[in-house]
Amino acid sequence: MSGVDVAIVGVGLFPFGRYPGTQCLEMGAQAARDALADAGAEWKDVQSAFVGSHEVSNPDSIVGLLGLTGIPVRAVFNGCATGGTSLQMAAKAIQYGEADLAMAIGMDKHPRGAFSGDPSILGLPAWYGQTGMFLTTHFFGMKINRYMQQHGISRETLAKVASKNFANGARNPQAWRRTPMTPEAILDSEIVNYPLTRYMYCGPDEGAAALVLARADQAHRYTSTPVFVRAAELRSRRPGAFEVQSPSLPLESAPSPSVDASKAAYEVAGIGPDDVNVAQLQDTDAGSEVIHMAENGFCADGEQEKWIAEGATELTGRLPVNTDGGLIANGEPIGASGLRQIREIVLQLQGRAGDRQIAGDPRVGYTHLYGAPGASAVTILSR
């Protein structure tokens, strides 16, 4: 990133799950307070903030719970890439001189039944979801089915990816799903959209996450272990990309926006995939994590089969992926999900990840988001 260097000096989380008695704004405010406490700062110190949500039309109204200080607070929504976008905008606010201390906050409270076709959601009858016709599940099923046929990926590999994420979630006291599952049990669960079964998908839920960012030359005021934002890039799709609104077009006709975003991030950060020690990849389903391993440059198409068999993406592997359980174990409140990813990387780089802490003194972390109908955000962090 050009200009002033930016550091993350505080992280906060309202654990993802289901909270019938808690308002979305309350969750966001609590995550923000936790991030501020982590940084040893107060809301009155913050000079700019970016707040992302899908369900809350005016998330900037969070100031009613945090304090009416009059600072610029902007609402953000960019599909599943919202969290990465919020961080990027907060970093830019610091680089462009609007703030020395800024925040990125994300929150959402999604209704149940997104995969069942509940009549209260989009007005669809129950059979629509039960027969596997819900748009998002149908798209991801089609996408990985085609990819498997082209590159020799097995259903067993998809099950191992999901099992790995459930196992990581079991080590994470703040994960939503904390019950380990074997690959066999995942394969034996009901099929939602072939080849994906029930436990190969993430679920929509509720929660919030927040980050405090500072000028790097002032980071010592807040923490002795700042984590620096080396790149924060966003790209949208180009004609021919294999996306929700154009699933019949050839996959090879244009790269995914994830490919474009990752290449841009590596160039800005001045590193390559081999330099990354730990990664968070969008795992809306197990197939997405497999595809995103290649799209982000960590392996070639088809090499995932060998990587997963060798345990390369496990906590003890050469590139641990989704160390907190990812979306599969945590669910996806859209506005908060990307900031949860970044929080996890910060904890890993600071050695604060507890039972899921990876070995080897990690120094470079990577986060990736992919949102329909085709936007991808990539962030590279380092100590």
Automatic annotation (TrEMBL):
Residues 258-380 form the Thiolase C-terminal domain. Its EC number is 2.3.1.176. Residues 6-175 form the Thiolase N-terminal domain. Pfam families: Thiolase_C_1, Thiolase_N. The keyword Chloroplast does not apply. It is an enzyme of class 2 (transferase). This is Propanoyl-CoA C-acyltransferase. The lineage of its organism: Bacteria, Bacillati, Actinomycetota, Actinomycetes, Frankiales.
